Amino acid sequence: MFDSVDALLLARIQFAFTVSFHFIFPAFSIGLASFLAVLEGLWLKTGKQLYLDLFKYWLKIFAIAFAMGVVSGIVMSYQFGTNWSVFSDLAGPVIGPLMAYEVLTAFFLEAGFLGVMLFGMERVGKKLHFAATLMVAVGTFISAFWILSVNSWMHTPVGFEMGANGQFLPGDSWFAIVFNPSFPYRLVHTVTAAYLTTAFVVGGVGAWHLLRDRSNLHARKMFSMAMWMAALVAPVQIFVGDMHGLNTLEHQPQKVMAMEGHFDSHPDGAPLILFGIPDSEEKTVHYAIEIPKLSSLILKHDLDAPLAGLDTIPDDEEPPVGIVFWSFRIMVAIGFAMLGLGLWSLLARWRGGLYRWSWLHRAALVMAPSGFVAVIAGWVTTEVGRQPYVIYNLMCTADAASPLDAPAVGASLVAFVLVYFTVFGFGTWYILRLMSHHPHTGEYGVKRGDTGPIRTAGITPGLTQNPGDPDTMPRNREEAE
């Protein structure tokens, strides 16, 4: 069934599909890990049971999201070796060590403390458990640090030397590779997006429960915290996004040309095209709605500043304009919608209606998944805008693929689609089910088995030999009988 399809196209679709699924979960778990650390810190500082209840409520959701993120991420390395072996061979000396550092620092840190965070609340001291929660939160940030460093180097490659066999070899300074020109902007922009994604999920869940019961103190607290985050961080994210755009204009101008829909150069100031239908064949944007010279003001801070267009770029080096044009607008529109909801919440807070304004709660509920849509749209803008290169201006995507036949790639793509929608669909359904439950006093958190963690052999060593062990002792009279 795939004989007539291009193997390269299938490989690109497969990677886009799997990485989009994967990106959803880290975007959530990065922000949620920090939110959990804040909740536990507030509980330790104030002693209020409400913060502990919210910590346990969201801890269950974090455990599932984190697990799905880890599992979906394994497929990325699989595809590097199967569908993109040429890229792995030539770029491996640079990107391989960076990805190894992600495992050695972030993943090991998370794995070492995750068990204590999930199951150690009643088994270690409060301060030690809080330290474990902090380490997991720090681990998620370090993971984002290394992965974004790798990806950013592919956009702005520096600090390398070309080997005799065409390999990219590290130069004299790894610092230049890690902190490549686009990395600081992409790191701040992505991590901030993760925090906003989590804030709007938390706010949406809080709004859902407020619509059902306005007196629920737990729902009030999570909604209030989420709206503070939206009001304070959304404008910061818009500013960071603008700085990232200016950096992109400097290092990847054709990506910005595609984002703006500028097929033609504008020597006397470029318009901002709000909407339209890009046509790469005719090199124009049909039915364009535009504001004169505003694009030059945004990108150059000068109404009359000249801006080059795609007419200065060879046709075979142009990114797919239609996809980049619309994904960018989706991301920006959601960003301003987040800002609007944050400002609306400030007005409601000032007027004493934060927990009474039903339309605010409905809007927050509708906006709950907006962060996921925004991060995927941002990823599409970034990655599709880099085309036709996998390493910008140095290696084309077509030259990075493995020499595979289309049926081989297509078979694995079908398998991934079926497995992903089944496994992660069920996981997402279970997370939504947990979110639908009212947060209440005495949340139980993540449950353990009655005899501790399950052993693969089905046997708990020393269970019968140590009857005094807490795991083997009855917890109440009924259990003893």
TrEMBL record:
Domain of life per record: Bacteria
Name of the featured protein: Cytochrome ubiquinol oxidase subunit I
InterPro entries (UniProt xref): Cyt-d_ubiquinol_oxidase_su_1
UniProt feature, compositional bias: Basic and acidic residues: 472-481
Phylogenetic placement of the source organism: Bacteria, Pseudomonadati, Pseudomonadota, Alphaproteobacteria, Sphingomonadales
Positions of region (Disordered): 445-481
Family: Belongs to the cytochrome ubiquinol oxidase subunit 1 family.
Membrane topology: Multi-pass membrane protein
Subcellular location: Cell inner membrane; Cell membrane
UniProt xrefs under Pfam families: Cyt_bd_oxida_I
Entry keyword set: Cell membrane, Electron transport, Heme, Iron, Membrane, Metal-binding, Transmembrane, Transmembrane helix, Transport
Species of the source: Qipengyuania benthica
Transmembrane recorded as keyword: yes
Membrane-spanning parts: 20-45, 57-78, 98-121, 128-148, 192-211, 223-240, 323-347, 359-380, 409-432
Predominant location: membrane
